[in-house]
Structure formats: structure tokens, C-alpha cells
């Protein structure tokens, strides 16, 4: 059989929506109410930040919708940047996008063990074999084996054909949004979910509260809700700063542009719907977790590791059916996230390889299925690090993904502006959206990287800075080792 040289056009609009939505909603939307959202921003701060973030992402999506028909090739932002800014800028964009997409796969895989443990009660059936601790969290062989098995399974499914992967992704996405919607409606009609439980609505100083708990001076929720609240601006920005991570996924759409079997004019509406659904799930999960638990600040402060507040809230609202709903939703989120980011990562690497930015082996397609097999195998191997690092590394991956996505948004918005000027076919609305997209993309980078007085919990933590420095260093070395190949392919 002769080797296929082109990706296969087998994705319909529903498949593409499912890829985008499945990437937007991953494990983080279910664990971060206890880890980041509620302590940093509370219910009100998180809701406002997510809505604002969704609006900004929709603005940036205009640039994507404009650029995809211009350059309907795998690679997305990388391809746009190469055409408009040249090889060095394209490499920077592509390298950081690899971080944005690929870190989400191991990040989702770390949740698999917690799903089983949470639904299993006290049996802890995965906590067997050798174990060790990373960032205060115990990692067990049983969890590693299960997570790695799923990573390999879904990687192989991606190799077997984009249409099969698209069908599976669609089923997972529909089950995910249906489960969250049922749980949200249950919270609205249940007497156990109360607005008063959401205090402090702007979050609290988690570090100070934990220190007070350790020295015995920590107060319970009623006085604490008034004395420990964060400032409104700080609360909103703490979550708004990671909006690029929260919504990373709609931008995976151009990575599969060569595989669409429908007109490109539908891309904008598909992205917009995915962003709206994503905003709903983030906000609903966070609000349900707080409204159904009258002592959620105490649970966060007293926990030895990140508490799964949404699972506790669902069980309080509906009992075992509530736990099952969360189990179905988070399982679909994890699996769809793994599936979607595998697809995006492999196609980005495939495109970069064709232009010499990565070794030529990543530019080979499977002769039978027409998928970037070698790039996918590499993604699988890298993703197997997630189960080994454990769940407390989640925050580091979030930050890496956020900075990578922000850089991709910036280059796409800037490329849109340049392309409109060059081709003289843009309209005023698209130009304005591109300028706003550039401003917000740079703002996200500043918020993530630069500590701003009075805005605690917004910028990177120490471990995230270290990971970023390592990634940049590897990228610099790799670029200079590949520069000759890049020069040859760019001619």
C-alpha cells in the first residue's frame, strides 16, 4: 500500500465542536474549585472572570475565523505566524503551542486515579504497589498503570483514524455537558444548595488561612467570610489571568483544518458555541461546589491535599446518583481532553516537521489511516510523564498551558491584522477584534509572568517559572540544532 501524503477530510461540524469543547473542559474544571477558583476568586470572582474570559476568547476567535480560510493547513497558529512573521517567530509560536497542548494530556491523566478513588469511597483500590511523594501527594503504582493504559489506548485510537476519534469525541462531549446540566438543575431546585453558602464570594487568603489553622487561630466560616475576603479586583484577575488555559481548546480547531469536510465559514459559530458551553461548565461546577457545601473554606484549609469539592457537593445534593453524575462528567472531560489535545499536538508537530522545525520522522503519515502516527507516538511517550508526576503538579501544567496559549493568541491576532492589510480584504470589525485580541493576549502574558503589587495569586508560582525556564532553554538549543533544516525548507 502506498503511503498517504495528505490528511483525510473526515471531520464534520459536530466532530469539530466536540474537539474544541472537549479540549476546553478537562479535569481542571472539576478539581480547581477547591484548588484555585474558590480560594482565589470565590463564586462571584470566578463567574465574572469566566464570563469576561469567554468574551475575550470570542473576540480572539474572530482572528482565527478570518485566518483559517486563508491558510487551511494543519499547524494553525504556527502556519499563520510563518506566513506573516517568518521562521523565527513561527518557531517561537509553535514551540509554546506544543507546551500549551501537550501539557494538557498528562494533566488530564493525573485525574484518572482520583476519579476511581472518589467514586470507590474508602476502598482505595488503586493505592497498591510502590509509592512515593511529589509536592506532598502520594503516587501509587496502581494509579500509574491505569492512567498509562488509558493514555496508550486513546493515543492508539487517534492513530486508527480521525473519523473514529471524532465520533468518540462527540459522544464524550455530549455526555459531559448533559451530566453537568442535570447536576446544575438539581442544585437550583434543591433546598440543600443555598446562596449564603457561597460566602466569601470573592475568595480568601488561602496561605494566611492555612497558617492560622496550623497555629490554632483559624476562624470558622461566618466571621472568616467577612475578615478574610480578598479584594474584588484581585479576586477577578486571579482567575481571569488563567483564562487562556481555561479556554485553550477552541484554538485547536485550525490544527485540524485540513480534515474538515464542511465550508470554513462555519468555523466562527463552532468556536463561539464551544466557548459558551465551556463558560457554562466552569461557572456551574464552581457555583455548585460552593452553594451545596456550607463549610467549603474549612474543607480547603483543613485538607492535606486538594479537596474534590464538587464530588462532595454532588453527593450532598443527590447522594449516590450525584456521585455517578460527577463521575460520568469528569471521566468524559478527562478522556475528551486527552483525545482532543492528542489530535492537536500531533498535527502541530506534523506541520512543524514538514517545514523542518522538527525532525522529518514526525512528518510521516500512517500509510493505512492517514494520521500523523510518529508524532502521535511521541505525544504518547511524553504524556506518560503525567501519572509519574502525580496530581499536585496540576498547577504547574496549568501555568505552562496558559502562557503557551496566550502566545498563540497574540500571534494569531497579529497575523490577522497583517493579512488584512496585505490582502486589503478585511473589514473594520475584524480589524478592531484583532487589535483587542493583541492587547488582551499581551495582558495575559504580563499577568502570568510579572508579580503586580496587591494582586496575589495571579502570577506564576516558583515551580512554574522553573518549568518555563527549562522549556525555553530546550527550545533555544533545539532551534539552533535545526536552523539549517529550517533555512532549507523555508526557501
Q: What would your notes on this structure say?
A:
The structure is a single chain. The chain has helices at residues 13-24, 28-70, 77-85, 87-102, 104-109, 112-120, 141-159, 162-189, 206-214, 221-227, 232-240, 243-247, 267-291, 296-302, 309-318, 320-354, 373-383, 385-389, 394-423, 428-449, 462-490, and strands at residues 131-134, 137-140. It is mainly α and 491 residues long. The chain has one domain: Amino acid/polyamine transporter I. The protein has a two-stranded antiparallel ribbon. Strand 1 and strand 2 form a beta hairpin. Helix 2 (28-70) crosses helix 11 (232-240), helix 6 packs antiparallel against helix 16 and helix 8 runs antiparallel to helix 16 (320-354). The radius of gyration is 22 Å and the shape is globular.
In short:
By secondary structure, this protein is mostly helical. The chain contains 21 helices and 2 strands.
Distance from N terminus to C terminus (CA atoms, Å) equals: 32 Å
The number of distinct helices, counting runs of at least 4 residues, comes to: 21
Q: Any idea of the CATH topology?
A: Amino acid/polyamine transporter I
Rg, rounded, reads 22 Å
Q: Quick check: average pLDDT?
A: 84
CATH superfamily: Amino acid/polyamine transporter I
Helix-strand topology string: HHHHHHEEHHHHHHHHHHHHHHH
Low-confidence stretches: none
- The coarse overall form would be globular
Per DSSP E runs of 2 or more residues, the count of β-strands stands at: 2
CATH architecture: Up-down Bundle
Helix amount: over 70%
| Top CATH class | Mainly Alpha
Largest sheet: 2 strands, antiparallel
Strand order, sheet with most strands: 1-2
Strand content bin: under 5%
Alpha-beta classification: mainly alpha
How many domains make up the coordinates?
1
Amino acid at each position: 500500500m502506498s503511503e498517504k501524503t495528505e490528511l483525510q477530510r473526515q471531520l464534520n461540524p459536530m466532530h469539530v465542536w466536540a474537539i474544541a469543547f472537549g479540549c476546553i473542559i478537562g479535569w481542571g474544571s472539576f478539581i480547581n474549585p477547591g484548588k484555585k477558583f474558590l480560594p482565589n476568586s470565590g463564586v462571584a470572582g470566578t463567574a465574572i472572570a469566566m464570563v469576561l474570559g469567554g468574551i475575550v476568547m470570542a473576540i480572539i476567535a474572530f482572528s482565527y475565523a478570518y485566518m483559517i480560510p486563508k491558510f487551511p493547513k494543519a499547524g494553525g497558529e504556527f502556519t499563520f505566524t510563518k506566513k506573516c512573521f517568518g521562521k523565527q517567530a513561527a518557531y517561537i509560536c509553535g514551540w509554546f503551542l506544543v507546551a500549551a497542548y501537550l501539557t494538557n494530556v498528562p494533566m488530564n491523566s493525573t485525574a484518572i486515579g482520583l476519579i476511581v478513588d472518589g467514586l470507590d469511597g474508602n476502598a482505595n483500590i488503586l493505592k497498591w504497589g510502590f509509592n512515593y511523594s511529589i509536592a506532598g501527594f502520594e503516587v501509587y503504582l496502581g494509579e500509574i498503570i491505569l492512567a498509562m493504559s488509558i493514555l496508550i489506548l486513546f493515543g492508539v485510537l487517534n492513530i486508527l483514524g480521525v473519523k473514529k476519534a471524532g465520533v468518540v469525541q462527540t459522544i464524550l462531549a455530549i455526555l459531559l455537558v448533559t451530566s453537568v446540566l442535570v447536576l446544575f438543575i438539581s442544585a437550583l431546585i434543591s433546598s440543600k444548595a443555598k446562596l449564603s453558602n457561597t460566602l466569601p464570594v470573592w475568595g480568601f487568603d488561602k496561605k494566611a488561612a492555612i497558617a492560622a489553622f496550623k497555629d490554632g487561630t483559624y476562624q470558622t466560616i461566618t466571621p472568616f467570610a467577612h475578615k478574610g475576603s480578598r479584594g474584588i479586583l484581585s479576586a477577578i484577575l486571579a482567575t481571569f489571568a488563567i483564562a487562556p488555559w481555561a479556554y485553550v481548546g477552541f484554538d485547536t480547531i485550525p490544527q485540524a483544518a485540513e480534515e474538515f469536510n464542511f465550508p470554513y465559514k462555519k468555523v466562527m459559530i463552532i468556536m463561539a458555541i464551544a466557548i459558551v458551553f465551556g463558560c457554562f461548565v466552569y461557572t456551574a461546577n464552581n457555583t455548585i461546589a460552593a452553594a451545596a457545601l456550607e463549610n467549603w473554606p474549612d474543607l480547603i484549609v483543613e485538607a492535606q491535599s486538594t479537596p474534590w469539592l464538587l464530588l462532595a457537593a454532588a453527593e450532598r445534593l443527590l447522594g449516590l446518583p450525584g456521585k455517578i453524575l460527577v463521575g460520568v462528567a469528569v471521566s468524559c472531560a478527562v478522556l475528551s481532553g486527552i483525545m482532543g489535545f492528542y489530535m492537536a499536538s500531533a498535527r502541530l508537530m506534523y506541520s512543524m516537521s514538514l517545514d523542518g522545525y522538527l525532525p522529518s520522522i514526525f512528518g510521516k503519515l500512517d500509510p493505512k489511516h492517514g494520521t500523523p502516527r510518529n508524532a502521535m507516538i511521541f505525544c504518547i511517550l511524553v504524556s506518560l510523564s503525567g501519572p509519574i508526576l502525580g496530581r499536585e503538579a496540576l498547577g504547574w501544567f496549568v501555568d505552562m498551558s496558559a502562557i503557551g496559549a496566550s502566545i498563540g493568541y497574540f500571534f494569531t491576532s497579529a497575523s490577522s491584522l497583517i493579512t488584512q492589510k496585505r490582502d486589503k480584504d478585511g473589514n473594520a470589525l475584524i480589524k478592531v477584534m484583532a487589535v483587542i485580541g493583541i492587547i488582551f493576549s499581551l495582558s495575559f502574558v504580563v499577568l502570568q509572568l510579572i508579580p503586580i503589587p496587591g494582586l496575589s495569586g495571579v502570577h506564576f508560582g516558583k515551580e512554574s517559572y522553573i518549568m518555563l525556564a527549562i522549556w525555553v532553554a530546550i527550545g533555544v538549543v533545539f532551534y539552533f540544532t535545526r536552523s539549517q533544516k529550517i533555512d532549507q525548507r523555508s526557501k
